[in-house]
Design a protein that fits this description.
The chain is of the alpha+beta class and 364 residues long. Helix content is 16%, strand content 31%. It contains 5 helices and 19 strands. An 8-stranded antiparallel beta sheet has the order 12-18-17-16-15-14-13-19. The protein has a 4-stranded antiparallel beta sheet with strand order 2-3-4-9, with no helix packed on it. Strands 5-6-7-8 form a 4-stranded antiparallel beta sheet, with no helix packed on it. A hairpin with a 6-residue loop joins strand 7 and strand 8. The radius of gyration is 23 Å and the shape is globular. The two termini are 28 Å apart. It binds FE2/S2 (inorganic) cluster and fe (ii) ion. FE2/S2 (inorganic) cluster binds next to loops.
Length: 364
């Protein structure tokens, strides 16, 4: 689906963290591709030998996009005056116009290059705050889908959203839209709405000074004759499911029953201050030997994501008029926590909206 080009209201962004830029299948050796994260234009590529890189797609000399130039598998050459850069460090290797009469040392000049790592088939880029200079060594770990066995299958879904990242994230954690947006005969109907009780606890991330703080929803084990047991093909094994939200934009869902597991990492990534993209990365070992299960799962998962996307495209139409918005108890409580966590991170206060376990009730 092509997303409408009308920009809704912008929001403040969290710099200084890892974001997924694009699928690494688009980056074969010696190739480059463009991407945008947090309003920063990027040139990504893969050097001969396999190493990924991510540069700000602007030449430090006169600002022409480096993507207009050439990449030979080792260095990126600017199209305008031929300055040549090592793309992992950004270090300039050559300024062709220099003569022996000049003392300028090209290797003292750097284009902006960002840490770039491959996980779950994605190029993750660490996007520092503008003007913080070169990124140091002490970075938080690169996010990835948790895995609980050596063999597993995986899938990926993507959807662009024409709204800012806050709406994408609170849409992701919103429990009350399910029966309306995701109606389907094979899933559920509106009539299936019933009261739910969910338990939450704070996640503090003390190791990283609270930068990836969040909260966990831990569910009770479903009753032994319920659909999850049948789906997982395990009877009597305890099922544990947890859903974690952590800053700046990640939702981890883990379902485990004995040896069987399903896990996903869903991210809502700011492309610009007023647009974002949802990526779902999933891995599982349930149904490992069933043929076509990846394409079936991807089909149904894609339908889900499309329903969310369609709804947010419609919402973006309304948001253009800057309406006042509401957050109610208890169904919108997680959204309130998200906004509080985000403010704490932006201001560096380290405050957490949850001081201990909380139980919420809603009908969905
Ligand atoms: S603008 Fe890139 S070398 Fe001059
Ligand atoms: Fe949804």
């Amino acid at each position: 689906m092509r997303v409408a080009e009308v920009a809704g209201p912008p929001t403040e962004l969290i710099f200084g963290d890892w974001y997924p830029a694009l699928r690494t299948s688009e980056l074969r050796e010696g190739k480059t591709a463009k991407a945008m994260l947090l309003g920063v234009p990027l040139l990504l590529g893969r050097k001969t030998g396999g190493k990924l890189f991510a540069m700000r797609d602007l030449c430090p000399h006169r600002g022409i996009p480096l993507s207009a130039g050439w990449f030979d598998g080792e260095t990126v050459t600017c199209k305008y005056h031929g300055w040549r850069f090592e793309p992992c460090s950004g270090q300039c290797k050559e300024i062709p116009s220099l003569t022996s009469h000049e003392t300028l040392d090209p290797t003292k000049i750097y284009a902006s290059a960002f840490p770039c790592e491959e996980r779950d088939g994605f190029a993750w880029v660490y996007v520092p705050s503008p003007g913080t200079g070169r990124v140091g060594e002490a970075l938080p770990p690169v996010p990835e889908v948790p895995k609980f066995s050596a063999k597993f299958r995986s899938a990926h879904l993507v959807a662009e959203l024409p709204c800012n990242v806050d709406h994408g994230i609170i849409g992701l954690m919103d429990p009350a839209h399910g029966p309306f947006v995701h109606q389907a005969w094979w899933w559920r109907s509106r009539a299936s709405i019933h009261e739910k009780t969910k338990h939450f606890e704070p996640l503090n991330d003390d190791e990283n000074n609270g930068r990836n703080a969040g909260f966990r929803m831990s569910s009770h084990a479903p009753s032994a004759n319920s659909a999850p047991y049948k789906l997982l093909g395990v009877y009597g094994e305890p099922i544990t499911t947890t859903i974690d939200f952590v800053l700046p934009n990640r939702r981890y869902e883990t379902i485990r029953a004995g040896e069987k597991w399903f896990a996903s990492l869903t991210t809502v990534t700011p492309i610009t201050p007023s647009s974002c993209r949802i990526d779902v990365m999933a891995a599982w070992n349930v149904f490992y030997h069933v043929p076509f299960v990846t394409s079936i799962a991807t089909f149904f998962g894609a339908r889900f994501v499309r329903q969310d996307q369609q709804t947010m495209v419609e919402q973006a139409e309304g948001l253009r008029f800057n309406p006042g918005l509401m957050l109610i108890d208890d169904a919108d409580k997680p959204a309130k926590w998200y906004f509080a966590l985000k403010q704490a991170r932006l201001k560096g206060t380290g405050e957490h909206p949850l001081t201990g376990p909380v139980t919420l009730h809603w009908r969905s």
